[in-house]
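This part of the workshop introduces the protein records we will be handling. Getting from the letters to the tokens is the skill we practise here. The record below serves as our worked example for the rest of this section.

…
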Amino acid sequence: MSGWIKLHRRLQEWEWYTDSKTVHLFIHILIKCNHESNTWRGVTVNPGQCVTSRDKLSGETGISSQSIRTILKRLQSTNEIAIQSTNYYTIITVCNWEVYQSTSQEGNQPTNHPANHPANHQSTSQLTTNKKYKNEEEIKEGQEKEPVTLAGTYPKTMPLVAANFRGGSIAQGILGALKKDGWTDDDAFEAFNHYLVLKEEERRYYNMTPGKVVDSCARLLNGFTKQERSEPPGVVMGMRNGGTLDDE
């Protein structure tokens, strides 16, 4: 694949810019998208679209499959992309592709910015509004921000983990590991619910300690069964009484 894409400095003002995995994946999608229409297995793929899958994106970027899932949801929620999925493939559409990848922009200067940042050919009133917004943000910069706690990040999952895994430090470690890997509250809650309905002997195939919980939750969320492994993983360390963990 050859050629280039336009990337505007305004990308630095994007709300996801401080999340390196999100920026990495979004730019990767921009690079993968068609610049002209073509056909793939009888399906028309337009400019600003690419045919891919979660596992393929993971292999191409080095980002875990679960993080890919989380980031795609994130980009959908802020209207950066739209996703059309089938049993065989996924088409990702970059919203506003024509606006910031058009070859007819004045001066032919490469520009690019996510959907929630307007294009360069905006009106004076828009520029004034954006400048005011930017000034307000600069005033806030440097001020102490209220820290986001694990309970605030995982309002549904925290009570579930605390009730079933004894020891506050263990619950904090489990959720801290999930947060570091970019897990949402909904995904974490779903994975733990899958775990808790398993029989005790089935739980032995999932290590829900802080060091292994990300892998275990990913397998739970992706419908992992013990038959899919040639050798079972070790028994969950510290497991007691139906899957709860005691303070050591």
Residues 124-140 form the longest helix (17 residues). The chain has eleven helices and seven strands. The radius of gyration is 22 Å.
